[in-house]
Write a structure and sequence with these properties.
By secondary structure, this protein is mostly helical. The chain has helices spanning about 1-25, 40-50, 60-65, 70-110, 125-135, 165-175, 195-205, 215-220, 225-240, 245-255.
Amino acid sequence: TQIVHEAVSIMIYSVPLHCIFAIWMFGQPCTFPSNPLGGQLANLAAQGSAASSNTATPDGLAERLSKESTWMITALLVLLVALYLVWTVLWILGGTLGELFNILILFACPKRMKVAPAPDESDSLFWKDAKERIERECPPASYKMTRHPAFKQVGKYMLEGKSFRATRNSFRSSRTGLSNGDDSPAKKPPVPEEVALGFLKALRAEFIQEEEGAVAKYLDDRGLSEEEREQLATCEEFVKKGGASEREAAIKDVAAKWGMTCPS
């Protein structure tokens, strides 16, 4: 911020200097020939030259200021000088009369006086004590996803100390009865047994025998509901995500959890 402030302060003086150099260059008759001003502007230029005739000025300065190629830059320079003078006067008045005016306002209206804020209690409060207060007044005091209201439905699957594979299988087990353990009770398939058997055969055809699109072709004309198709899609994803050497075991795991024998 300080660098920007200093750069802006310097630019205030660079613009008038730029105008002075521009007038000096464009007013040079050998380098940039230009006619003197005519009409009403010429009369004003003549009056200005007459007013400054008693002062010592460099030769040809009035002529350079009043040419057709420089008169607009001259006007801009005069405007900038006037603004700079006004700014300087306001700065002087603000540093003297302005401070006096502020003091008089504070005496007349004490309510407008700014009071320093009291020390924040949290600056001297340790996290152990702050945590209890936050839990009491504005819970939760934790950044854990298991405490987030938006993840209540899946929070029980995000258990500490469990691996990602175990957490994933726990979530899938709740939807389709699939898990890596062998101690879970056998469940019925989410679709009729003949459809489930055909689905297992389609899984083998696509992921073991590498028959592309076998599962999709089988499910297209089965008239399954959205929920049934979603459950079977989860089983397909379970098999698909395994490596080439794990897909056979994954299909058998699906069949075992459905209480069925995996077709060969």
